[in-house]
Amino acid sequence: MTTTSVLPASTHVGAVHLNVRDLNGTAAFYATLLGLNAATQTDTDVILAAQGTPLLHLHAAPDLPRAPVSRPGLYHTAFLLPTRADLGRWLAHAARLGHRIGSGDHLVSEAFYLSDPEGNGIEVYADRPRDTWTWRDGQVQMDTKAVDAAAVLASAGIDPATLDGAHPFTAPQDTTVGHVHLKVGSAAQAARWYADTLGLDVVADLGSAAFLSWGGYHHHVGLNEWHSAGQPAPSTPAAGLAGVTFHTPDLGALRPHLAGRADMQDAGDHLTLRDPWGNRVTVAQR
């Protein structure tokens, strides 16, 4: 599925917003795990940044229930590190913190997985060079194989057997949210909505999951129905995903494309609407 471009190819993920029951505890968890700093901190909100770039906006929601696994919403926030050596440094740091970590070699990237204390999924990954990615008929070839964790550690000069050479981790310059992966009631319906509404290209269609991007990236948005097939938009609030922001240099084509939509709010420098499962989507001009 290829769409008429309504956003520039350089459009990408900005900050992810989470409603959290324990604001201070969750903020401390992400700061320690990813080496982020609190760019803004109040009694109700914390914005966590990597070298000045906001990645997570946490909103205090102590009275909200924890979301069940079957609820549409966040599958994981994926933090993209600039190099494989950065990923190795992070992996050693996370191992020393005692986290249980899953992994996946996706051919286009090497990734590690865990969850925060409130059950929100986390991916930390590094891309392989783009010239090593394989494309066939507009689809990027991805898989899930075992990551050679020892080689990832060795790329950072860390002994895989002893973790000698590991140090506390600070998110390096150019750390970003590379993609966001959502749970939806129908991957096919969600893919159509994101393609038709935001001009993303479907670059991998697995039936029960779809991956979409701008500008030939392997994916900025992942969608799956593995735990949430058939689920409608939630009717009551819960902790978890509060919204996703995408950054773009130009809203000029998107604004008329969305004109007349009852669910679209235009604040001048950003447009906000909701996907079919109630997830708030903001496209901001930066």
Automatic annotation (TrEMBL):
PROSITE patterns: VOC. Keywords: Oxidoreductase. Pfam families: Glyoxalase (PF00903). GO terms for molecular function: catechol 2,3-dioxygenase activity. CDD domains: VOC_BsCatE_like_N. Its EC number is 1.13.11.2. Residues 12-127, 176-286 form the VOC domain. It is an enzyme of class 1 (oxidoreductase). This is Catechol 2,3-dioxygenase. The lineage of its organism: Bacteria, Thermotogati, Deinococcota, Deinococci, Deinococcales.
